[in-house]
Specification:
Length: 120
């Protein structure tokens, strides 16, 4: 993920390798929500990937989202859920400052580099 233009960050949610399994007998149906918070406006933008039906512990999404960056102190919360009929199960989440995400996502040549984030 990465690719920073002036003022815009493009984040591609590619895939996950999940150690948690919230299902006992069937495969999980994972999706990700991304909450973008600016310093002045919490919850400025929230997006959701599609559900990877029966994606189990190795879901793939390959979906791109754009966010308007106000400051490198903006932060993003990525949360993985397992879609269920009534109440979706929380699989895990991770909180990142945009500045930290940008520096993780650009290699020494200044090119876009895939980044792996650890869920908690
Ligand atoms: Ca499920």
């Amino acid at each position: 993920m990465g690719n920073v233009l002036p003022g815009i960050i493009t984040i591609e949610l590619v895939s996950a390798s999940l150690t948690i399994n919230t299902e006992m007998f069937v495969k999980m149906d994972p999706y990700v929500t991304v909450v973008y918070n600016t310093v002045s406006q919490p919850n400025k933008k929230t997006v959701k990937t599609k559900v990877h039906k029966s994606g189990g512990q190795t879901p793939q999404w390959n979906e791109k989202f754009e966010f308007l960056v106000e400051s490198m102190d903006d932060n993003i919360i990525f949360t993985v859920f397992d879609k269920d009929m009534f109440f979706d199960d929380l699989v895990g989440n991770v909180f990142m400052r945009v500045g930290a995400l940008v520096s993780k996502s650009i290699n020494a040549d200044g090119n876009d580099a895939p980044t792996t984030l650890d869920l908690f």
